[in-house]
Design goal:
binds 1,3-dihydroxyacetonephosphate, binds NADPH dihydro-nicotinamide-adenine-dinucleotide phosphate, Rossmann fold, phospholipid metabolism, 15 helices, nucleotide-binding, N-(1-d-carboxylethyl)-l-norvaline Dehydrogenase, domain 2
Length: 376
């Protein structure tokens, strides 16, 4: 696969069009999820559905990379603030958004003619939200998922949910993973991400559209591993927060990160992931960033629980934003049980978040389990 030339922080998205590009800019050449990988694609116009921390930050990356970006916000006042003041103060205080990023609360207006559509709502709301948007998706658009979670009940990964609801092959969805704490990236701090898709051409098209001087996207074809890594680390971040809240230090957190990665990789191996994905940005990269940073909502949530606060108080501490691990500990635990995979930390988080178990007691039980070799 030849590499395409990359140019960070393009000021003109048309720069991205080269003589080899045979894709219709309107995206009508190829319906989303239909025949793919036959022609290089160019993404010029992107719609981001959801205007929370990561949705807004990802929109900023795309706009800084020279794309025309339209955001959809479910609250009209958020859309007006983004469109008129170029800020989203509720989610990214102090951040100025680029002029080529606009917003509306009307999904049809937001979606009109988009070459790519980024789904940036919480995992457990994705099915319902996408159900409203399905009929409005432009033909040929590339669907991109930012959500890191596993659906309750169905135990499906987000690309599976998107494929089902949008009626496209799940391996046509581009999944964004990696150590991407929104506030750091919105402040222009250097970071890398990984864009996973079964169709390499689609991943490359989005990679090119999101390449800036501060954000470096890689591609990967292991969608299963990338999605599971992103969902599972939120649960492990809860446990690291709890450990910190209980007053434990770096050894405890490092143990949870390492053993958390081990149980994530075990689940991934069982479900067909490439084990090397867990050694990459989506795996160890995101695990370390989320488990160690006070910016993580999941870690913060866990820390509050560790300090003795209730689930409701911990939810307040993350300011109404989503701590995906709280729901995903249930769906991932169910997935693990169904797959016959042992995930003791995830199981412990389920007991704390959903059965009212005492965090210190659960921690002691984790330590006291049957001894075993590090690698089975
Ligand atoms: N924040 C981060 O650093 C990162 C987040 N992610 C993942 O990206 C996904 C989106 O995260 P993020 O943008 O941070 O989330 P936030 O909680 O910051 O924002 C959620 C956004 O979705 C909207 N929304 C629409 N429908 C719903 C609904 N039913 N329930 C709740 N919110 C809804 C919210 O609207 P409203 O404002 O009106 O509530 C808001 O715009 C998550 O899966 C997260 O794990 C991935 C990498 C980094
Ligand atoms: O996914 C993230 C970083 O990669 C964000 O983590 P939180 O949702 O815990 O803030």
């Amino acid at each position: 696969m030849p590499e395409r030339p990359h140019r960070p922080d393009a000021t003109d998205a048309t720069d991205a069009t080269d003589a080899t590009d045979a894709t219709d800019a309107t995206g009508t050449a190829d319906a989303a999820g239909s025949e793919s990988g036959e022609a290089e694609r160019t993404v010029r116009t992107v719609t981001v559905l959801g205007s929370g921390s990561w949705g807004t930050t990802f929109a900023k990356i795309l706009a800084d990379a020279g794309r025309d970006v339209r955001m959809w916000a479910r609250r009209p006042e958020v859309a007006s603030e983004i469109a008129e003041q170029h800020t989203n103060s509720g989610y990214l205080p102090g951040v100025t958004l680029p002029d080529n990023l606009t917003a509306t609360s009307d999904a049809a207006t937001a979606l009109d003619g988009a070459d790519a559509v980024v789904l940036a709502v919480p995992s457990q709301s994705l099915r319902a939200n996408l159900g409203h948007w399905r009929e409005l998706l432009p033909a040929g658009t590339i669907l991109v998922s930012l959500a890191k979670g596993v659906e309750l009940g169905t135990r499906k990964r987000m690309s599976e949910v998107i494929g089902e609801v949008a009626g496209v092959p799940e391996d046509s969805v581009v999944v964004v993973a990696g150590p991407n704490l929104a506030k750091e990236i919105a402040a222009g701090q250097p970071a890398a991400g990984v864009f996973a898709c079964g169709d390499h051409e689609r991943a490359v098209a989005v990679q090119e559209a999101a390449f800036t001087s501060y954000f470096r996207p890689y591609t990967n074809t292991d969608v299963v591993g990338s999605e599971l890594a992103g969902a599972c680390k939120n649960v492990i971040a809860l446990s690291c927060g709890i450990a910190a809240g209980l007053g434990f230090g770096a050894n405890t957190v490092a143990t949870l990160i390492t053993r958390g990665l081990a149980e994530t990789a075990r689940l991934g191996a069982k479900l067909g992931a490439d084990p090397m994905t867990f050694a990459g940005l989506a795996g160890v990269g995101d695990m370390v960033a989320t488990c160690a940073s006070p910016l993580s909502r999941n870690r913060t949530f866990g820390e509050r629980i560790g300090r003795g606060e209730t689930i409701e108080q911990a939810q307040e501490a993350v300011g109404g934003q989503v701590a995906e691990g709280v729901m995903s500990c249930r769906s991932i635990r169910d997935l693990a049980h169904e797959s016959g995979v042992d995930m003791p930390i995830t199981d412990a988080m389920f007991r704390v978040c959903h059965e009212g178990s005492d965090p210190a007691t659960v921690g002691a039980e984790l330590l006291g389990r049957q001894q075993k070799p590090e690698r089975l």
